[in-house]
């Protein structure tokens, strides 16, 4: 498979992942599926926009670049004195690195959010108050602590599900971008279609 064709496959995979990450981040602004009147009661990590900026906007740029690397006549690039194809593959490595940074940012924000838990109206047996009661991460293994969050209803499950999805999707994005770094390096060295080059060299 030509390097450009493989890069296009990666780009096609990245776009739906980026859209899903943006949607997950937007849904986190509505904890438990409800509208919160006070923005201070929304979990802090949501405002870091890991899914919107990191795995969303920053991921669209490399995805579009990868899509543009497809060459319908890949064998036509072999033996061409122009370095355009190789430069394009080299450029894709830079955008892949940008995607890695975005995915890494989203992954870190999501991991911290999963560890810290959601912000909720917590009842500690005295006076309920809005706080982040699970900062030590123990709630992940002790589900009885979840009952202390009175509002929004189902906030812990909502928080864990969406941030876990962001965590997994950003990890997949990082892997795809890392693969394109290798693919781009091969394309920059060998050209867009190394197999064709090899066959032509053999014919000579």
Order of helices and strands: HHHEEEHH
Question: Strand share of the residues?
Answer: under 5%
The tally of helices reads 5
Cα distance, first to last residue?
A: 22 Å
Structural Rg: 23 Å
Shape: elongated
What kind of oligomer do you see?
single chain
Give me the secondary-structure category: mainly alpha
Strand order in space, largest sheet:
2-1-3
Total domains: 1
Averaged pLDDT: 86
Strand count, sense and closure of the main sheet? 3 strands, antiparallel
Residues in helices, as a percent range: 55-70%
Low-confidence stretches: 72-79, 195-204
> How many β strands by DSSP?
3
Question: What does this protein structure show overall?
Answer:
It contains five helices and three strands; from the N terminus they run H-H-H-E-E-E-H-H. The chain has helices at residues 3-27, 50-67, 84-116, 155-190, 194-203; strands at 120-122, 129-131, 149-151. The model is unreliable at 72-79 and 195-204 (pLDDT under 50). It is mainly alpha-helical and 204 residues long. It has one domain (3-203).
